[in-house]
Amino acid sequence: MSYIIDRRLNAKNKSTVNRQRFLRRYRAHIKKAVSEAVGRRSIKDMDKGEQIGIPTRDISEPQLHHGQGGRQTRVLPGNDQFISGDKIPRPPGGGGGGGSGEGNASNSGEGMDEFVFQITQEEFLDFMFEDLALPNMVKRQLSGNEEFKTRRAGFSNYGTPGQINIIRSLRSANARRIALTSSKRRQIRALETELEQEQEKDNILKDPNKIEALTSEILSLKNRIKRVPWLDDFDIKYNLHAKYPVPHSKAVMFCLMDVSGSMSQATKDMAKRFFILLYLFLQRNYEHTEVVFIRHHTSAKEVDEEEFFYSRETGGTIVSSALYLMKDILSDRYPLSEWNVYGAQASDGDNWNDDSTTCSKLLIDEIMPKVQYYSYIEITPRQHQALWEEYESVAKTFSDTFAMQQIVDVTDIYPVFRQLFQKRTA
């Protein structure tokens, strides 16, 4: 049997490199398992890791080996049936089989379970929100306390010891020494030439006093050069860093949920699942995103995250109360010059009398011109009612920024969520 050994160099953290390679190779299996896990999980376990099972047949590695057949001229040790020269019939079939048992049920032999491994919370969320993005996000005017990024901005004569640039400092010191001693070195070269000429004269013509004077002057100049410091405070250069503002896109997401009496507990749980997915997506991918939670029945109220997901308040149904509150909060706290505005609304479609017409008018006249994207999901197995029909007119007017989908059961939540926030190519 032949073995293929991969001797390519890995990074220091070899196990991490191998794990990432494994995750890339079986991405399709993992994404399918993540999609199924989202549907069966409870609300509290939505952001935890997951056990992924891959069928053994999908992770089997190819094996290269020699098959049976060909001319064989050897006799195996321990043989008591054949002698050299006997002809043995070729065994039927082709190459030798090296397969392993599958995990399928059978009445003979043993099988192998599927390969199961654990992905972390980070990896689970990466696969869950892959290729998703808030649509139409643009950079707005910066205001207030902004982020700054430090960049190199040359060199300075002042700084801390940790910012010393050694190469620049040594270069400056060398340049200073050359500048301060160049004239003296020229004088030394001239005096040495004159001393050499004087020493080459005949003994009669030599002037010992002149030779002594030249030697003394050369020695004096060399001592003066030696007294030039090798490194001076003036030579030390420091790396200079400057802060530059980092442009970022601030966004606010309005989450509007119907908690009226027509919404059964199962319907409310599906709405909460959708908004938890949305909340996790925003928290993970957008640092500068604020979330405004609005619950409504006959009246609307802004609440915090805990009350939004776990309160059991109920009542009648007036959907426009949530839209009016969203409009007021938007005008008071989120100027359009600074914020990208998004909205997500979940309801079962029931509404009070003619309030659906008021909702569509509010969206068309007041809200949709100010938002980057608005999504409406209707959680009901029944036929659509007046609210859906009114929202269809909004979708026709704002076809690029308004989207609506229906959810019938829990398994529809994740596919609908991905469809609403799928990353769009420019």
UniProtKB/TrEMBL annotation:
This protein's source sits in the domain of life called Bacteria
Instruction: Please list the residue ranges that the record marks as compositionally biased, kind Gly residues.
Output: 93-102
Q: Check the record and name the InterPro entries matching this protein.
A: UPF0229 (IPR006698)
* Residue intervals passing through the bilayer: none
A Pfam family for this UniProt protein? Answer: DUF444
Extract the ranges annotated as region (Disordered). 48-110
Signal peptide (from-to): none
HAMAP family according to UniProt: UPF0229 (MF_01232)
Which family does this protein fall into? Belongs to the UPF0229 family.
Alphabetized PANTHER family for the sequence: UPF0229 PROTEIN YEAH
Name the record gives this protein: UPF0229 protein GCM10007877_13430
Task: List the source organism.
Answer: Marinibactrum halimedae
